[in-house]
Design goal:
By secondary structure, the protein is mostly helical. It has one domain. About 85% of the residues lie in helices and about 0% in strands.
Length: about 160
């Protein structure tokens, strides 16, 4: 495999691992912190979720896209190839859900957690936000998994998206 191709593939796979790993671990942290219920634990988990989303999710998305488009261009793939177009559409769908629903929830939850992390009472608004975060987080994972499957399977015979 030529060096440039190996680099694009490395960037793409590294990005996918960072992205998928972070969303999985974050959901587990959040689930167990919510079950624990102690303000200090919830506050710490919320802080880690914020940190890892900016350090792992954002960079995972960037590397996935840079490596993926680098591979597509290096291999001469048309971005309109049905499996590639569908994969991009699903990836964008996940991004839209993340930006429109999950990020605003996380910002509100982080602000609330800053108020109770030192030992205050956890407000019911925080619990409601956690449930919304879980719902939207799981929902945003479905198209991401679809995109990952399309990247690996590259099935022929998919209908054209446009």
């Amino acid at each position: 495999m030529p060096t440039a191709l190996a680099l694009w593939k490395f960037l793409h796979i590294t990005g996918v691992v960072m992205l998928m790993g972070n969303i999985t671990v974050t959901a587990i942290w959040k689930y167990f912190a919510d079950r624990d219920g102690r303000p200090q634990v919830l506050g710490f988990a919320q802080k880690l979720i914020t940190y890892t989303d900016w350090s792992m999710t954002v960079w995972g998305v960037a590397l996935t896209m840079i490596g993926g488009y680098g591979l597509a261009f290096a291999l001469g793939y048309s971005l309109a190839t049905p499996w590639l177009l569908w994969s991009q559409a699903l990836f964008v769908t996940t991004g839209v859900i993340w930006l429109a629903a999950i990020v605003p929830i996380q910002i509100k939850a982080a602000r609330l957690a800053n108020g109770f992390a030192a030992g205050g009472t956890v407000p019911t608004e925080y619990t409601a936000l956690s449930m919304r975060w879980l719902f939207w987080g799981l929902l945003s994972t479905v198209p991401l998994l679809g995109s990952l499957w399309l990247m690996l399977a590259r099935p022929d015979g998919l209908p054209a998206l446009i």
